UniProtKB/TrEMBL annotation:
Gene: HIP1_1
Top-level division of the source organism's lineage: Eukaryota
InterPro entries on file: I/LWEQ_dom_sf, ILWEQ_dom, Sla2_fam
Name this protein carries in UniProt: Histidine permease
GO cellular component: clathrin-coated vesicle; cortical actin cytoskeleton
GO molecular function: actin filament binding; clathrin adaptor activity; clathrin light chain binding; phosphatidylinositol-3,4-bisphosphate binding; phosphatidylinositol-3,5-bisphosphate binding
Amino acid sequence: MNLLVVFIFQAIKSLIMKSKVLQKEIVDEGKGKATAKEFYKRHHRWTEGLISAAKAVGWGAKVLVDSADKVVQGEGKFEEIVVASNEITASTVQLVAASRVKARQTSTGLSAVQGASRNVVASAAGVVASAKTGAEMIEDSKAVPDYSKLTLTQAKRFEMESQVRVLELESQLTKERQKLGVLRKAHYQLAAVEEGLDAD
């Protein structure tokens, strides 16, 4: 796990450094006779999007590693790792998309950013896979209850408790999916508003 953690932070460091190089290239080519400061002021939405995406990638990596450590120690939830990994992937895609908006398609800087982004996603997937293996080993080491020794009354009680738990989980899942749908809708609306402001 430690080696994978090193890999993901190295990959993110490389992505951010290559993004800065590409950003400078974009500014130098796009500012014309204006200063870099004037270019950033004129395209502040694009700049903010680029910076926020880069920060989100770094934040996601920290959450991913912290969650993975907890899962391997038998204290955390594997689902937290999956969510953190998805956040890293989404933020990396956002970073590449923001770079592509202003960069030339033939730019070597853009190609470097795209390559670095693939390394970040692959490294995140490696942490997820490693944590999953660790979690499965912990689960396998736990003693499985011997249900064959239960009385009829005990077996019926456990069965009813299990059915209740299944219904509770299904209800929670439905509510979380509805919540996720509302959040995604709000996110798309905010993105559309920002794009509209950029167009103005």
